[in-house]
Specification:
By secondary structure, the protein is an alpha/beta fold. It has one domain: NAD(P)-binding Rossmann-like Domain (Rossmann fold, 3-Layer(aba) Sandwich). It is about 45% helix and about 15% strand. It has nine helices and nine strands. The strands form two sheets. A seven-stranded parallel beta sheet has the order 3-2-1-4-5-6-9, with helices on both faces. Strands 7-8 form a two-stranded parallel ribbon. Helix 5 packs parallel to helix 6. The longest helix has 29 residues. The N and C termini lie far apart (about 45 Å). The structure holds NADP nicotinamide-adenine-dinucleotide phosphate (NAP). NADP nicotinamide-adenine-dinucleotide phosphate binds next to helix 2.
């Protein structure tokens, strides 16, 4: 079966589906013939994003939930399952960034980022696993980051949430393999999305720039879905140079050690001079 046919008629829920990587995943899944439940917290943003995909007619559906709220996540996934009678893929994709000096982080910042990036994934997994076990099949894809496998300086808060997601998802991948359930961890590098314009306090900064070398979200979604179809565990996108960076860090490569030290120095100077690292 080709990768395209693999998703045909499959029931997919994508959290954070109204923007960025989540939106690109929704669109690519629809192109590949899936039934997609786009989940987001802001009804207007979700309706507008779904409207852009209205050419897929009755295969695009919407769900409203704040992923930091366990009941709302549970109700939304259950609503999709009630309507579609099953769930084949759950993409726990919703998340926020967090690049800031540790010194500047308040306990509210910690709570927001852990609730949004980590508890959201736990809530999704907690709801979907019993349903998928009953079905005897299902695939949960949790979004981590390259910052969830490599420790980038000034991203301590974000790293805590994303290393947690990577470790959790990889453990479950082995734990449930004999039960017919699959797990994957998406580790994106810089992908061109609005995440770079948002700060941990929920504010949006139009003046903030998306890095020029950021990888296109639609290409990332194509790559991710090909790898998910192959049931790959950790999916690093784009594959290079991030995979070499990851290997170099794990193996203690001196060049990678120097690179991370230099990054810490450059970001520290940038924060001291401009109050921001970009
Ligand atoms: N872009 C990158 O370079 C990059 C790199 C590594 C990892 N990632 C990860 O990839 C995932 C997607 O990010 P993105 O780049 O596509 O960013 P994005 O364009 O800002 O999209 C994030 C999505 O998550 C939603 N969301 C945030 N908090 C939520 C909440 N409490 N409840 C429900 N939905 C919520 C957002 O909703 P609103 O539109 O209402 O804010 C939005 O739909 C995140 O987990 C992020 O950490 C991204």
């Amino acid at each position: 079966m080709s990768n395209s046919e693999y998703y045909k008629d499959k029931i997919c829920v994508v959290t954070g589906g109204n923007s960025g990587i989540g939106y690109a995943l929704c669109e690519e899944l629809l192109k590949r013939g899936a039934d997609v439940y786009m989940l987001g917290r802001n009804p207007k943003k979700v309706a507008d994003a779904a409207e852009q995909l209205s050419s897929y007619k009755d295969r695009i559906h919407t769900l409203i939930a704040d992923v930091t709220n366990q009941k709302q996540v549970e109700n939304a996934i259950n609503d999709a399952v009630k309507e579609a009678s099953r769930i084949d893929f759950l993409f726990n994709n919703a998340g926020i960034g967090g690049t800031l000096p540790y010194d500047n982080a308040t306990l509210d910042d910690w709570k927001t980022i852990i609730d949004t990036n980590t508890w959201s994934v736990i809530y999704g997994v907690h709801t979907a696993v019993p349903i998928m076990l009953e079905q005897g099949s299902g695939h949960i894809i949790n979004t981590s980051s390259v910052a969830g496998i490599v420790p980038f300086p000034f991203q301590g808060l974000y790293a805590l949430t994303k290393f947690g997601v990577t470790g959790f998802t990889e453990c479950l991948r082995y734990e449930y393999a004999e039960k017919g359930l699959h797990f994957s961890t998406i580790c994106p590098g810089n992908i061109a999305t609005p995440i770079f314009k948002k700060t941990i306090d929920g504010k949006e900064h139009e003046e903030a720039k998306i890095p020029e070398d950021a990888y296109p979200a639609d290409k990332a979604a194509e790559y991710i879905l090909d790898k998910v179809a192959n049931k790959q565990g950790v999916i690093v996108v784009p594959e290079q140079p991030q995979t070499d960076l990851w290997k170099g860090y794990v193996l203690g490569d001196e060049k990678i050690e120097e690179l991370l030290m230099q990054m810490a120095h450059d970001r520290r100077i940038a924060y001291e001079e401009k109050g921001t690292y970009f």
